[in-house]
Each structure stands twice: as C-alpha cells, then as structure tokens.
Amino acid sequence: MSRAKRFGIAAGTLLLAAGCAEDAPQDTWKPAGENAQDIHDLQWPVFLTAGIVGVLVIVVLISVFIRFRDRGQPIPEQIHGKPALEITLTAIPAVIMAVIAGFTVPAVMALAETDDTECVVNLTGQQWWWEYDYPVSEDGTICGVAPTSAEASPIITSGQLVIPTGTKVLVRGTSRDVIHSFWIPRLNGKKDIVPGRVHYLRLEADEPGIYAGQCTEFCGLSHSNMRMEAVALEPADFQRWLDNELEPYAAPAADTAAAEGETLFIQQCARCHQVNGLVDDKGNDDPADDAIVVSAPDEFVWSGAAPNLTNLMTRNTFAGATWDLLTENCRDDVWNATPAEFGAKYLEGVTAECLNEVDLREWLRDAPAKKPMYADPEELEATDGKFRGMPYLALSENQIDVLLAYLIERK
Amino acid sequence: MAIIERPTPALTTPAPVVVTAESSYGVFRRPVHSTGWRSWVFTIDHKKLGIMYGVTAMFFFLLGGVEALLIRAQLAGPDGTILSADKYNQMFTMHATTMIFLFVMPMVAGFANYLLPLQIGARDVAFPRINAFGFWTLLFAGIFLNTSWFLGGAPDGGWFMYAPNSSVPFSPSNGVDFWALGLQIAGLASLTGALNLIVTVINMRAPGMSLMKMPIFTWMALVVQFLLVFAIPVITVALFLLMFQRSFDATFFSVEAGADPLLWQHLFWIFGHPEVYILVLPSFGIVSEVLPVFSRKPLFGYPFVVFSGAAIGFVGWGVWAHHMFASGLGPISVAVFSISTMAIAIPTGVKIINWTLTMWGGKLKFTTAMLFAIGLIIEFTIGGLSGVTHSVAPSDTQQTDTYYIVAHFHYVLFGGAIMGFFAGLYYWWPKIFGKMLDERLGKWNFWLMVIGMNLTFGPMHIVGLQGQPRRMYQHTEARNGEGFFNIGFWNLIASVGAFIIAIGVLLFLINVYKSHRKGTPPAPLDPWDARSLEWMTTNPPKEHNFDQIPTVHALDEFFHRKYEDRGTEDHHDYHQVATAEDVIAEQEANADAHIHMPSPSYWPFVVAFSLPIMGYGILYSTMLIIVGGAIALLGLFGWALEPSTAIESDYDPPPPDGPVSTEVVVSG
Amino acid sequence: MFTTGSKLLIGSSVIASVAAALYGVTQKGTLGTIGLVSAAVALVFLAAINVYVRDSNVSAMDPDAHATAPAARPAPSPSLWPLASGLGATMVAVGVVTFPAITILGLIVLLAATAEWLVQAWSERASADPAYNATVRERIAHPLELPIMGAIGIAVIIYSISRVMLGLPSKTGAVVAFVVLAALVLLVGTLTSVRRRLSTGTIAGVCSIALVAVIASGAAYGLNGERTTHHHETTGAIAEDGDCGADETEADENASQNVAAKSNVAATITLTADEQLTYTVPGFDGGGFADLTLPRSTSNNVLFRNDSEEHRRLSIDTAGATAAEDKRVVCSALVEEGGVQLLTVRFDKPSFAAENPYQFTVPGVDGAVLPVVVP
Fold this sequence. Notes:
Chain A is an alpha+beta fold. Chain A is built from 10 helices and 14 strands.
C-alpha cells in the first residue's frame, strides 16, 4: 500500500528528525537551549501519539477494506448505530486531548516567564533586516558584562544577534513598518514583531555557535531575503566582542584607498548608514571645521533606518543576513567550528583574504537588482519619494574598490 | 409618452379589452427559452445553476492549479528564477484566493444547489432568481479579481492580507484593491446563496421529511450555510475597513495614528477559521452519502454525525486565535485557544470513527467514488493529526508559517475538500448528466491524484520541520542542509508530485470528454443502488425534479422503497422488492397535475453585472460608479416589476402546455 | 421590434454616450463629461422605459387593436402635473433673475412633474379599465415615488428640527425644548391611541399642523442663523498650540482618563505619589536600567499614568533641540489622579546626534525627569 508506506516515511521522519547530524540549520527538532528544549520535550510525545493514532486508524481501515470487501455476500445487516460504542469511541480522543492539554498549559506559562532575565536586547524589524540594540544597565554593564576599558554606551548592530552562552536573554521587539516574525528555531519558537507594540521572546543558548533564523511573517517583496542569526559566545568571548564594539573609531591612514573610501562613504553612504565616530573634515586640516557625521535615513528610506556599519566586518553576513561576507571556505570554517574553537574564529571577523567580494561588489553595484526592494525611483509616489531599501547608487568600479578598502577596516 | 400618434377612427361602441399592459413589454419581454445559450444565461433552474457553479469552479480550479504548478516549478530547485519575487507573491496570494473563494466555495455552492432541492424532494430553491443572482455575482467577482493580472499586478499580500503590509505604501499596485472589492462582491454571492438554501431546507422539505430524516449531505450543507451567514459579514467588515484604508485614506491600520494592526488579524481569523469548516464540511457530507451506498449499510450513528457536524460548526467560532499563537497575545489567551482547538479534534474524530464503523460489516464495492471517499478518510486523518500537533501552542510557535502548516492544511483541504468533491462528482455524474464516467480512467485518476498529493504535501512536513518558512520565493542551498532530510531534495519531490496531481486532474477532464462523446450509452437509472431521494427521479432529472413530490417515511427513503424487511423483531433481513425503474414508474403514474415552475429572467444577470462595474469605478473613475449604479437601479426595477412566472404573451408562439396555473408558488 | 419613439431615444442616448466619450478623451475638466454621462444615463433610462411601454402606443404592432384600443380614446382625468410643470418652469425663469437655488429647485420640480405626467398619460391608455390603469401606474411609479418622497420628507423634518435646535439661544434650551416636544408627541400619541374614535381626518389634520409648525419654525430659525457654538479643542492640538505646560487648557477638560485596547506598549511611565517618573516595559519591570531605551524612526506608544495628587501631563521634545523654534514637543492631555493616557512619540535622530538629551518631563514638577536613550 503506497499510502501506508508514505505515512511510514512521514512518521519515521518526525521521529528521526531529532537525531540526524547534517540537518538544515533551521531544524526545529534540534534544540540548543532551554526554551527550545522545553518545546521539544512537549512536542515529541505529541508527535509520537499522533503517529501511533494515525497508524492505528490506517491499519484498522485497511483491515476493514480487506475483510469486508464485496465477495458476493448478502446484503449486510442495516445497523444504524450503537450509542454505547459511539460514546466510548468519542471518549478516547477526548481523554488523549485532555492529557495533552494538561502538559501544554504549564509549558505556555513557563515560556512566557520573564522574571529570570539576565540580559536584555532590543530588537527592531524593518523591511528587510533586523536591528539589535544593547541597552546599558544602571551598573554600567551590557548583558551583565562590564566592558574592560571603555565606558559602556549603547551598542547597535544588525543581522547577527550576539549573545553570551548560558545566559537568559530577553529579546524585546518592535517594528518600523509591517509585521515581521523573529525566529531562531534552535533557541525558541517564533514571535511576531508588530509595529506599535513590543513583544518579547526568551532566548538561551547552551553552546557557542551560529544559530540560523528567518523572518516568518510575510513582510512584502523581499520576505525570503530577511534572515537573521543568533551568535552565541562564551562569556569571556562575549566580553571581547563587547570591548571591540566599544572601541573608538579608527580613521584610515591618509592617502590610502581606504581614506578615499572614507570620503566617498561620507558623500554617498553616510546619508543613511551610520558609522559611529566618523568625522567629516570637509577636505581641510582645520579642526574647527570638522563635523561628526550623522546619518538621516528617515529622509531617504520609508522605514527610517539603515544598518549601522561601524563594525560591519565583525559580522559575517550582510543585507538582512542574506549574503555571506565570508568566502565559502572561510564561512564553513566558522559555521562548522567546534564549540571550543568557535569563539576565536568568529571574533576574527572578516579578513581581507576571506572577504566574499563577489556578492558584496554585486550589492554595491546595484542593490535592488540583487535583493528586490521597490527601488524604482519612478514608483515611489506611495512612499513620499522614499525608498524601501537600498537604492541603485550608480557607483563606478573604482568607487566600489575604494569603498571595499574602507569597509574591510570596519571591525 | 406617445411620441408618434396614429389617427384613430371614431368609436361607436365601448372597446372590448383586448390589449393589456403585459402584452406591451416589447424587447423587455422576459426570456422563455428552454434551449440554446439563453436557456443557460437567463436560467433560474437550480440544476442548471448548479452545473454552471460546478463548471465555473472547475475553471478556477484549473487556474489555481496552474498557479500552484508555477509556484512548485519555482521552488523545485534552490534559487529558482521562473518567477520574480513580485510575481511569486502575487502567485501564492492568488493561488489561495482562487482555490478558496473561487473553487471550493463555488463547488460547494454547486453541489448544494444541485442536490439540496433533489435531496429534500423540492422542485426548486426558495428564491430561484436570487439563486441566479448569486451565481452571476460570483462569476463576475472571479473575473473582476483576475483582471488585476492585466491591470498593474495581482494582489500580493497573501490571502490573509495582514495589515499594515496591505496598505498603499507597502503594496502600491491596485492588486489589493481588486482583492478587497472582488471578495466583497463574492461575499454577496455567498450570503444570498446561504440565506436562500437555509430557507429552502427549512421550508420546502417533502412531506414526512423531519430534520432527522434529512440526507446527511443536506445536513452538512445546511450547517455550512449557517456558518456562511455569520462568517461572511465579519470578513466584509474587515474588507470594508481595508477598502477605506486604501482608497479613502482612512487610518484603521495606521500605527502612527494609534491603530493596532492586530485588529485585522482578529477580524480575518474570526472569519477565516469558520471558513475552514465551510470548505470541508460539505465534503464530509458527500463522503457520508457515498460510503453507505458502497458499503450497502446505512450511515453508522447518523445522529452522531449530524450533531458532530453542528458541534464543529459551533466550536469553530471559538478557535480563531490558534492562527495567532505567535502574534503575541499573551499566555492566558494562548492557553485558552490551545485548549479550545484541542476540543474541536473530538467531533472531527467522531466522524472518522463513524465512517469506519459504517464500512465495518458492510459489503464494500471499490468504485472510483468509493476510492475517493476512502482517500478522504485517510488523508484527512493525517491532516487532522498534524493539526493536533500544532494545537499544542508552544509546538505551534516552531511550526507556524513553515511548510509544516502548508502540509497540514493541504492534507485537510486537498485530502478533505477536494477528495470529497471528486467522490461526489464520480458518484453523482450519472445523476447530473445521465452518463457514466469511465471507471477504469477514474481509478487512474484516483491513484494519480492520491499519489501525487502525498508526494507533494508529504515532503512538506519534512521541509517544514527542517525550518523552511512559507511564502519565500526562493530557498537557498545554505539553509537546506544535507542528507536524507535535505530541504532541496524534498522540494524537488514535492514539485514532481504537483505535476502528478496535474496529470490526475487532466485524466478527469479526459474522462469527462470520453463519457460525453456521441454514442456513449445513457447511464442506468440507479447505477449504484443508491439510498436517498435524489435518485428517485430520472437521469438527469426533469426540470420540475419529481413528477410526484414523494412522501418520506424513513431516512434512506429510496432504499426502503426498493427493499423490504422480512426479518422478525431484532433480526433484519432485507430483500429487493422493486427496482428503481419500478419506483420511478410509480411516481410518473401518480404525477402531480399542473406542475408549475418559475420562469427565467434577465434581471439577476443585469444586477450582478452592475457590481464589477461599480468595483472598477471605485478604482478608476467615479463615472463608472454612476453607470454601474444606474444599471443596478434599472435591474432592480425590472426585477421588482417582473412576476415570478412568465405570462402567455411572453411566449411566441404561446407556451406549449397551454395556460399556466399557479399551484406551486415560488417567488424570488 | 423597436418603436419609432424608442428609436429616437436610443439614437439620442448613443449620441450622448459617444459625445461623452469624445469629450472625456479630448477635453480636460470633468464637469462636461459628468453632464454628458448623466445625459446619456438619463436617456438610456428613458429609452428603456419607452421600449418597455412601446411608445405607450399599445396598438402600434396590432392593427386590429388599433380600432378598439382605449389608447384611441381620450382619457381626460384631473391632473396636478400640468400645474406643477408650469410652476417649475416659472421657478426656473424666476431663479435666473433672482437666486440660482430657485432655478435648481424649479428644474427638479419640472423634471419630477414631467415624469409623473408621462407615466400618468401612458397609464391612462393602458386599458379600458380605469382601476386596472391605476394599478399599472402604481406599479411603475410607486417604487420610485415612495422612497424619494419618504427621503424628502425625512430630510425636511430633520433639517427643520436641526435648524431649530441650532437656532435656540443655548444648548440647554435646545435640550429642554426638545424634551418637552418629545413628551408632547408621546402624550398626543398616547391620547390618540386611547381615544380610538378619532377620525383619520382629525389625526391627519393634527399631523399636518405639526408638520407645518416644524417646517415653519425650521424656516424661521434657519433664516435667523445659528447661535454661536463653542468649538472644543482636541487633545492633539495641545502640542501644536505650544500648550504643553502645567496649566489646564480647554482641550484637557474633555480628555479621556482611560485608554482602551492598548497592550504591549513600549513603556508605561508613572508619575509616582512623591512626584518621580518611573517606568515599566513589557517583558521585565525595567529594573536595572535607569534610562528608557526607545528605537528611532518608529511610532512608540507610551502610556502615562498619574499617581500623584495633582493633574499632570507628560511632555517630551522629540527633536532634542536647544532653540525654541526647532523643538518638536509632544505631550499628553492633563491626566487626573489615577488616570492613564496614551502618547505616541517618534524620534528621528539618535541620542548622540541630538543637541539636548531626550527626556520625558512633567511640566510643573521639577524633579520628574525620565531620560530616554535613542540608540
């Protein structure tokens, strides 16, 4: 019976999914932290029960087909029903469902708890990327970690959410435009991120590593290009990451390609993309003329924000975590690193040898061609002339070269 | 208003009355054709309308199917390039919208329209012209909705059209407007149809047919009509808000003006969840008709099946928020809706149990119709059980908006609704068209469809649990994983399965063509040894359905007229005492005198036609609203003035059966 | 099949439609198109009716009936419509030299009277049976007459009453007057129902007098003009008018003191009994964080709860500017003790780019400051 076979495969899938080592990075059956584990502990018995009931029903049905097929027997007895039997058979599913409900309700409550929070990260979604900011607590720590040298100030990043392992993180999210959904399957279930509201989600990772995720609420044209990753680091590594984030801006050496890139960045990119500490010297040496560069994405893009690029090369994906900043080999090296080695490899960031120039160049050449973003300047009437993502900037190859030289130093 | 007067001779005697107002209707004389295209376009016969509903639904089924095939072709491999992101979003929005609103709902309306009057022993529905209006409205709504493809792009917000993504800045084309207006028009069709059928079932049952002697399909269809009456107004309110948001600058979903976008979700799913039962309950009814016939036993636990259907109808209103477990409702709401969702599994389980027990001890004949019915039981069980897994809210937060959900509801809707429809089509085809569908082709059709559907939707369980979200125009190698559970491989399998389904559907069309070629013999009167009232007339039924309105003594009246119980008290022993021919001949012999049917009419068509014109008017020009309004006014005027039956002078030459009489009063 | 008259009308409507289309395509401005489309719609409607009644010439297709048809006989019966048409025409003329409103009214009267005249004339030729003719007229005319007359009647009464209500010297006076009037109507109605022997004539008489009284007083008050009404400020205007101070403005008087259907706001900010600002945010109680963090470039919904003993409002400059003219202050309405109000704030610049730090303040309370960090 092909149907039975298919069901067998499907049921087997559900049971085996937990144990397989090479599964997709968003496998929902491979919990890597307390919250996902709670869900998993609840769901596998339910899947098992459903599987058993399914097999039972199908076996009974097949036996009925065989036993009662037309073999020329006389007209069967015209039985209209047996209430006692019916009530019994109704009670069985009712009892099963009651038991499942008995386990479900406490799990729902447990997953909504927040009073054990150890680290708060604010999350803002927009078309089509995620922004994370780390508030500074009263005692000057971020996520419970005090920076070594610099004074703590709020950190803002995008794409990859860096968290310390073994820490109960609370992500508090809101949206700048439409509804998005934040989902790191190996750490917890998903939560819709709704404009005008703040929703929160617990995350906790047991081991260092990169945990992949994807926006799961349909959010328009580039919905499938809105990804995210949670990067879990040992607390000591997290401290190093934090220190690096707080380091002051290092301007490129004069007369290098990178310095040229900085000028171009200020002219073109800084309209929307903030680089903390970036100073515009207006082409002269007079310090009185210097001005801190402040981006104003609210004037150019509909959602009013663009990723902060201060430490772009510490992250290893870009454009909504959709493309890798690392070449394939370097990427695999980091993503497949053992938990012990992972921290060091991740903190290395993107080196010049490892930079995935192909995708990054394509992106700088014509971003809307790479990621659909309603960027046709002719069709921006509905958004008051604002773009819904990065527009086409008409950069020359030479300009792209110097920009890359500048960007590779951002870490 | 006599513009041209003729000279009149002087009169000597008072004139006799020879001319009446009715004789001067001119070209506005009502249509009375019983053949040719006009007999279809202006018909108000529930059977012709039922067939037209069915044909329309099948057309949109093919259209929605092509959309599905394009989606599957795009997803067959990683980084598909067949569709752009924009076209892909339009495609999945229209696939769902078409399949739900333009295929399943019209198909349900078609079956209900055709069968309800026959199953309850009536000659037509209560309001035949409203019935025609409903059909044309639906057809025009469907055409209106699909013209958006050529007018700047189809709707692209998903069939759930979550706010604020449906607002103008995020969806600047007119697609969403077409969607909101088209569904409002289609809603009008559903609402009028539902009220019509409720009145019909409640008031027009044959003598002796108490509610608990009503055929089970009629029961399920009745429950569905009540669901429609309460659900359609909710979505209409939501669509109305959306229309004002987009076309008239209202701020119902604008966060900066203080709105909460979750309002849309609540409105949509309060409609959306009962809608699921609107789609699937009629097929439960069909299967509950087919299984007893081919098991040669009555439906086991008829009252349980009836009441579980009604219970599903009621509880279905209390579970909408299980579509929103990830929406941030708070743990208390989530827990409550989680439990109510589990509760609805119980009446659904009752149905599966009753169907199994109907077959238990029977004499099973595996015709194509029976195979599809069995297919429904098995596939729906799988879909129901995967449903149980996400009634567990924490588990659902991992599965919602992934392909696991896509797998679940396709098992429920393809395995439920569509399998049921095909069971019904094979079962009632001889009744409706007087020709048998070929059984050998039918079995090929069944096996291709059932294998195709399991190949398509089975792997979606895997890719969903592997973390592939829905509504993504591409999946990439990087997130696909490797080995047995590789997302890429199972997507390919699913795409292959989709094309196998397409071949199955194609075989059905070939089967239809084959059975209607010239020279195929007419179907026997009672090919399946059926049990219910609709078989107690010719194939296809006469225009007035029954020569004599039958008096009903039992559930399965037809069976009891053919078979006699010769057993003693507790022991039943049925023997055939009459053939269908005998039963129908007896009816003919005692035919009612002066059977009188309502006449065709232009007006439902005209009024329905005005609606899409007004729809285009809202999008493009106020002028068109005025024109559409004028047409509607004219149509309603004509409708109101028109007597329900054509008078003699409408016929040219006079009607064949002499003067009309008015024994049966059917108005509309 | 088509009679001569309908050919004329069908031809006219085709010409009007073509003209409308041509005009619409070639000329700018919608008024001409509206006029031509309206003409086309009206002509189509007339043509349809004319086809329906076959020029009202019942015998057009039937030579035998020609000799015997009642249409051949004069059918004089008293009619109001010539008079009404004449009145309408006169009004059109008078209006041209006096007020345009009279012209429009005259046109409406003229059109209505002509339409009624046409229907009556046709119906009287329908058959030799006057009673039957009357029902024919009703079948055609009532579906239009009744709703239009009803609508006009209701509109006149509502308009008259509204004029009186707006014309009475005070709001209270209007309320009192109409309570008395309503009581009177109830009383008369009750008496009428008790005394069943009242003739229809009497009731109609009383109703007519009442109707005339309503219309007359409506006209009188309407000409007299409305009393000066007081326009209430909305709470949204407080900030625009620069009234975000400690004093009560007029808009504050009617501000709601509770908020419906708002959950998961960005923060709930409370002015405590000892006049300090504290806050809680969803997910955790805000403990450990002195400053409130709110994202830039998005609408943040904030609830303000006042637990102090004075009426207070929450205020913030979302531009973070020093110069007064650059400030973009938003504030809630004045909140009573224990009351709650919603405030939606949006910051376009991050904190480091603002000249002044962002902070929520409570006007009139010096110590109540809640710094906001916009990363």
